[in-house]
Every structure is written in C-alpha cells, then in structure tokens.
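User: Fold both of these, please.

Assistant: Here is the first one.
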Amino acid sequence: MSHCIDIQTADRELVFHGYRFVARTATAGPSTTEPVVVLGGSSQDRFSWLRYERRLLPHTTVLTLELPGYGEADPLPVEYGIDFLADTVRHATEALSLGPVNVFGACFGAAIALRLAQRHPDRVARLMLGGTAVAISPEYIVAAKRWRRMVDDKRFDDMAQDMVEQFMAPPGHGVVRRQAAVARLMRQRFAQLTERELAMDVDHHERLLTHPWSLPSPAVTAPVLVFTGEHDTITPPQEGRRVARGLGGRFTTIKEADHLVQIERDTDLADLMARFFTDRPLDDLPYLNPVEDCVRQSQMT
C-alpha cells in the first residue's frame, strides 16, 4: 500500500445485552467490496490483525472486534455460547451502519462467523472460514480440560508450551514456514497473558465443550471459502473439507503451513482474503493447493 494513503481508524465501545465490547474500524478511501469483518481465535484482540488490515484497506473498510470475552471487552460467562457472540457481531454491524459485510473467521472465530451467516444471512455477503471443523476433536477436549487444571495450579509456562504443541504441527509432519520462530512467538505470547486474559482464554475453550461448535442448519446462502494449512493437525484438511461440503462452498489448503497459517503465511493469506472478497480467480496461486468445488449436501456428514 502506498504510504500517501490516508488511513483513518476509530475505536468504539458498544454494549450488547449488558456486555461491553470494542469495535475497531479502519478506512482508507473508496471501497471496491463490502466491509470486511475479521473474527480471530481465542487469545486475540483487535490489534492482532493489523498486518491484514493494511493489506485489505485498498479494497474496503476493515472491522476488527474485541467481542465479550476478548481483550479489553467484558469477560463472558461460559453459559453464553456461539449464538450470543454471532448476535453480538450482527449488533456491531448494525450499530456502525455497515450494511452487508464480508466475514472472515479463523479457529474460534470461524464458529462465530458461520453462526452469523446462518442466523443473519442478510448481513453476510461472503464467508471465509479458516481452521474449522464439524465437531471438536477428542484430543482437543482432553487438552482443554488439561489447560484448565494448569491455570488453576498457576502453571502458566507449562500451559504456554502445551498450547503451542497442540496448535502447531509436530516435528516431521511436514515443512512449515517459520515454524521455529512462530513457536517461540507463541510461547512468549501465551506466557505473557495476564491472569484475567488466561481466565477468558480458558473460558473460550470451555465454551466450545458446552455449546455446539457447528450446526448443520439453517443453510448458508453466501458464497463460502474454507481453508487451512496443509499440515494442520488440530483441524485437519479433511475436517475443513467436510465443512465446505456441508456448506456447498469451496475448499483449499495453504502450502507449508499448519493451524497457525495466519502467522506463518500472513502475506499470502491476506492476498487470498482480498481475492475472495473481491470475486477474483483463485486458480494457480503459488501458495495454494488446488481449490476444490464442493457439492452441497443436505447436512454435514
């Protein structure tokens, strides 16, 4: 992006059903597509996607959210599920008068993004989901319970190491770009979380154990692209493919990446987002494996 482009940003506090949260909007001139809403995973805040923000701004306005349970927003009790968070996103788009939006969701954010498209189809122009699955894996359930015990015992360094091992491909699984550097970064990030942030993070994991991650209906009407890293072990490619088939969307994997593809290959993922949200071809991109057109099925299988 040219340095002469005037980027304007604004943070706005919003309240939904008594829970305060924060919306960050960024603009940089005329738009060629609907605004992009970015919904990240747990442990992320509205500043986690700044690199993506700058790459998307030549095309449209970007909205990043600290929903209840994230960052500086109010903590959200576990009994509030994915439906509530999806409705909170809808409330934000209405409060900011954005109209229909392009929605990007990664990991935990993918569950929220999908539920938004199911519950409020008129609000979603295009839907892009990363690192997602039809259901939580047994391995993740065991890990989430282990992380709760580690937090209760204040074993924060052990938890940081454990989470990195869970979210990244193990040695020998395949070539992952910047794997060692990203592992160091993630260990530092998890180890530096405050007790408040750790508590909210564990609440997110427990939320997934007590509320459905994915529902087979209602149908999604917006165009859908599902992706993950080709070496993702926490939400493997076959799981993402099942989601895409259930939604009648497209599916692809990003080369030399695992579940943390948004950090390992940020430039390429930002390019993929811009292309999908502006209806440009996705064929023959050097960082992508072939894009699959999945047949719509009556329900996820």
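And the second sequence with its predicted structure:
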Amino acid sequence: MPTTPESSTAPATRGGSATAPVIEFRDVEKAFGDNVVLHDLNFSVEKGDRVTLIGPSGSGKTTILRLVMTLEEATDGYIFVGGEPLTHEERGGKRVERSKKDQKRIRQRIGMVFQQFNLFPNMTVLENIIEAPVHVLGQSKADASAKARQLLEKVGLSDKADANPSSLSGGQQQRVAIARALAMDPEILLLDEVTSALDPEIVGDVLAILRNIADTTDITMLIVTHEMQFARDVSNRVLMFDGGKIVEEAAPDVMFSNPRHQRTQDFLHAVLGDADGTIGTH
C-alpha cells in the first residue's frame, strides 16, 4: 500500500518551492452530494514524473485531473502545484478559498487534453491553437502563430493550419488538441483517456505523438488511460485506483508483471485478458 508522503504534514510555501512536488494531493476528499468519489487522498507527482492512473470506471481517476484543472472543487483537503495552494489554503486554522486571480495564475502552468477534442468549430486549426496564448498569455499573434506552426509540424499536421476542425478526422482533431495544450508551454500536462473517442486504427498515431513528447520534453504528466501498453511505455509510476482510493503504487514493470494486490490482479486480468494478467514488452 502506498504511504502518505512525509511532506504532506509540512506547511507549503505560499509562493511555491523549487523542491516541492509539482502536484500534491493532501487529505483530499471529493463528494458529489452523498457520493464520495475520493477518500482522504494523498499522493504527489515530482517534476518530470509521468504518473499514470489506472482502475475501473467510476474509481475517481478523471475527477483527480478535473480537480487539478480546477474544473471541479475538492470537498475537503488541499491540492498544491509547485508547493503553492491551488484553490484553498489553511489560514488561521481554517480552510479558506484562494482568490480567483491566484487560481487562474497557477492554472496557466497546466495543460489538459480531454477525451473529447473540444475544438472551437468556428475557428481554423491555427486559430484554435493561438487563441489562449494570445488572449491569456498576451503573446503577439505573430509569435503565437509561429509557435503553433512548429507544434503542428510536431504532431504531423503542417498542412492543416487553415483547415476547419470539422474537416478533420477524430485522430487529427485530437492531435490539434494536443498542439493547443502544448502552445501554452505548460509545466504539467494532464491526459484524460485521450484515445477513448478514436477509431482503433488511429489510436497508435496519437499515442506515438505522446510518447515523443514524453521522450523529448521534461513536461510533468498525469495520465488517465485504458491503454495499458502506453501506460507501461510512458510512465515511471503507475497508481491503481478503486473506490476513490489508491490500492497499489508501483513502477510499470512491477505493476504490469507482478502486481501485489488482488484487486489490481483482477483488474489487469479483466483488461488484458491474459491468463497471467501481465503485459509484455516490445
């Protein structure tokens, strides 16, 4: 069973810390009405880590990403980004919400790629990518466009800058969404089942691009995926979730070859369909 990080009892530095985890969940609870989906959650992600969350549907994995992106708000506990409280901090013994200005400033360090592509249909591919850098980061249109074209080349869509999203395949739209997230120069990239809406024959193209990003950048990644081979290839840590709690935490080779917890063994056997519940290497 994973242990709570020692740092979870230490006060975070108000302005962040170079040595603090890039992401830290400290005693976090999330409930939707009477349904508690995350229970007393404690874990951290260090700079440059590629951490993948696996587990059955409804185990709380996507909720974790949405909390980091401030699309949902924790019911209790604290989330830190670079040692700085994300949405709430402890002040005078009370849990107090931080200003929206502070939350927005911290959120600019985070990019997210969703299951659905969420591209603006009334904008070209290039306009989709430069929208946030221009209007959120204050970049010039020329600089943002130059960066966007570099990213389109990186994701294999150099010839689609002026295309409308509706003319693209699902895989191409997801690659545009990846480029759009990277255009903000995020320190943290959240990936939420980015291949689940794609046709099986194009999943490999998108995963290859993400593998390349993992290999060629130091972006910290927090990943939710049902692609176990991708999780094994990209991750340096894998966390198994069930019932809103961490059941097991291990390096990918250990998690996929010799999981200790019976729940993990059962889940991997169901997902992989192998007699021994393991996944091979390339």
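Residues 200-216 form the longest helix (17 residues).
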